[in-house]
Amino acid sequence: MGISVEGAFKSFGDFQALNDVSIEVPDGSLTALLGPSGSGKSTLLRAIAGLETLDAGLVLIDGEDVSTKPTQKREVGFVFQHYAAFKHMTVFENVGFGLKIRKWDKAKIVARVHELLDLVQLHGLADRYPSQLSGGQRQRMALARALAVEPQVLLLDEPFGALDAKVRKDLRTWLRNLHEEMNVTTIFVTHDQEEAMDVAGQLVVMNEGRVEQSGSADELYEKPANEFVMSFVGEVNRLGDHFVRPHDMEVVLDPDERTEQGMVQRIVALGFEIRVEFVLADGTEIWAQLTRSELQRLELEQGQIAYLRPIQAKSFNGSSPDDGSGASTPRGPQDGGDAEVSAAV
Amino acid sequence: MAASSAPSRWGLRILGLGYVAILLLAPLVLIFYKTFEEGISPPLEAITSPDGLHALKLTLIMVAIAVPLNTVFGIGCALLLVRHRMRGSAIIDAIINLPFAISPVVIGLSLFLLYGTTGWFEPGLSEAGIKVLFSVPGMVLASIFVSLPFVVRETVPVLQEIGTEQEQAAQTLGANAWQTFWRVTLPAIRWGVAYGVVLTTARVLGEFGAVSVVSGSISGQTQTLPLFVAKQYENFNLPGAFGASVLLALLALSTLLAMNFLKRKEDA
Q1: Under an 8 A CB cutoff, do B169 and A149 touch?
Q2: Rg of chain B's alpha carbons, rounded to an integer?
Q3: H or E element: which one contains A8?
Q4: Is beta strand A305-310 parallel, antiparallel or unpaired with respect to A249-252?
């Protein structure tokens, strides 16, 4: 079932959460809504589920306008960031909730719930209460609960946001596989670009209540529509009007007409990847991503002068003024944590 | 640091226990002692007298009417205050607390102004043949009034704490508003409600001031147990007064124990 949203507006008091948003989600796809907090991605997802009412605009599921349909009639599966487990019910009762509401007979509910518990690898935990489960188990239970009623679409709101890094990665892979198996149209919201690129076939990048760009991970990375997308889907350096990915920054010891002179400020080894931070003559801080062998060949040291040559650079002239949003400035060593650096690869 | 605080910890403990013992336990123990000082038959006789039995029955009727009404109202009001925040909510919130702030005697008098011979509602009511003052309806009204805030006050924080996500999850799974309330919201807030019910019951059982004003305290007709206790005391029938007091205390205690029992059974 394809989903589309047309011209959606939503405000909360003075805050414009959605500002003329239109998206198209193809049938059977796995789509990520990606954006920083406050970008409107969760509001959009909740509007599709009917948990928020749009001020203006349409939500269509399988071509049918569901804008005025209440949530319980939209046949959507929804997974919340904090699981929204029914705490007074066992795992079995949680997963069987939707079926009980639909007045399935008991034997059929038992069969269906156990089938789902197998699918989410929670067999044997049917009689536990949510408080007796780990975060990852709770979220899988919430997924089983949403899938039990065979929804037309599956909506996940930062489903892995409250989990620790290792569990997140496991569940990511698992969700991708699950989607391939079940083939239900799925939209998930995340602020983590690595997660979005890892899991989703199609990404919609949102910012300040608008859609900045949508497309495949490759398209967004290779052909970003603007500075915001370029800096949000990966690391970026800024050289005048141009934006360069750190891995597109070649470091050489001999200058030529295309190089910029810089001084090595810091060398950070992150396993295989080396992050070399430079300061240019005009004070600009940029960094280059090298491999361990490249570093050994160049024999760079702190304080040394070297030359930087952008292999590939982009400019978005006319799209926005040079001193535009803060999101487009290159990340200095302070605000790009180590985890984020590896996430950019 | 832990070592130096040991004596002061003991000091605090003794102070706390002593305070509770003198102010709460001593009077209670004394009542029990006084009640059975001359054996079990004098208090038993007083309670099983026709007036005593009638007072017990009337008290239970008050509880049976006022507690369910205030429970339903309390849950509804709490839902309104927490889930449907709107203009005027703050005012409703403040008004709910009035029975806590106003003396019960004043509440009784205000009912007089409404239902008395010169009261606002009087002409219509006497035409319909309904007698409010000096009869059970007025006493029920007074009981409802004084015990109104308990369920609301106990339910509101629990409703706020559970948040709306579970309810929204129920909706996405196909539950309508009614199903969501019965299957998700009510079970989640049940101990807050239960505690409110226990407090409401205790208050209705023990209410004296407001009920005393509107009932006229007619023996065998409009006398609840607290009024019966007062009457026996005035008539120098101390075993009767103490006996009825103990009965009241046992009734209130049993509701508290019943809740604890249910809770323990569920936790097990």
Answers
A1: no
A2: 22
A3: strand A3-12
A4: antiparallel
B22 and B106 co-located in one domain: no
Same domain for B20 and B127, yes or no, is no
pLDDT at A60: 95
Interface confidence, given as ipTM, is 0.80
Residues 6 or more apart in contact with residue B86 via CB below 8 angstroms: none
Domain with residue B91: its CATH number is 1.10.3720.10
Q: Residue A213 belongs to what H/E stretch?
A: strand A210-215
A134 burial class (0-12, 13-18, 19+ CB within 10 angstroms)? exposed
A149 φ/ψ angles, rounded to the nearest 5 degrees: -90, 10
Number of independent structural domains in chain B: 2
Does B169 sit within 8 Å of A72, measured CB to CB? no
Partners of residue A291 on adjacent β-strands: A273
**Sign of the C-alpha dihedral computed for residues A209, A214, A220 and A224 taken in this order:** negative
Q: pLDDT, tens digit, for every residue of B92-129?
A: 888 999 998 999 999 888 888 888 777 777 777 777 77
Nearest neighbour of B165 by CB, restricted to A50, A80, A102:
A80
Per-residue model confidence as pLDDT tens digits over B183-200: 999 999 999 999 999 999
B29 class by beta-carbon count within 10 Å (0-12 exposed, 13-18 middle, 19+ buried) = exposed
- Encoding tokens for residue A123? 């067999």
Contact of B187 with chain A, judged by CB distance below 8 Å, is answered with: yes
Cα A139 to Cα A157: distance, rounded to the nearest angstrom = 11
Do strands A56-61 and A273-280 pair parallel, antiparallel, or not at all (unpaired)?
unpaired
Q: Are B173 and A101 in contact (CB under 8 A)?
A: yes
**Least CA distance to A49: which residue of chain B?**
B172
Task: Let me know whether B97 and B189 are in one domain.
Answer: yes
The tokens describing B190, both together, are 């049940």
SS3 content of chain A, % helix, strand, coil (to 5): 30, 30, 40
Q: Minimal Cα–Cα distance from B74 to chain A, Å? A: 22
Q: Which two tokens stand for residue A270?
A: 């992150």
Spatial contact of A196 and A190, defined as CB atoms under 8 Å apart: yes
Cα of A67 to nearest chain B Cα, Å: 15
Question: Do B221 and B160 belong to one domain?
Answer: yes
Q: Kindly state whether residues B135 and B151 are assigned to the same domain.
A: yes
Minimal Cα distance from B176: which residue of A?
A: A72
**Is the confidence at residue A338, as pLDDT, over 60?**
no
Same domain, yes or no: B182 and B161: yes
Sign of the torsion angle spanned by Cα atoms A329, A331, A335, A337: positive
Which strand (E) or helix (H) includes residue B196? helix B186-206
CA distance B143 to B147: 6
Residues B3 and B125 in one domain: no
Residues B29 and B118 in one domain: no
- Concatenating the DSSP letter of every residue in A174-192 gives HHHHHHHHH--EEEEEES-
Range of the domain at B5: 1-35
pLDDT at residue B35 above 80? Answer: yes
Residues of A near B (CB-CB distance < 8 A)? 49-51, 70-78, 80, 82, 84-89, 97-98, 101-102, 142, 145-146, 149
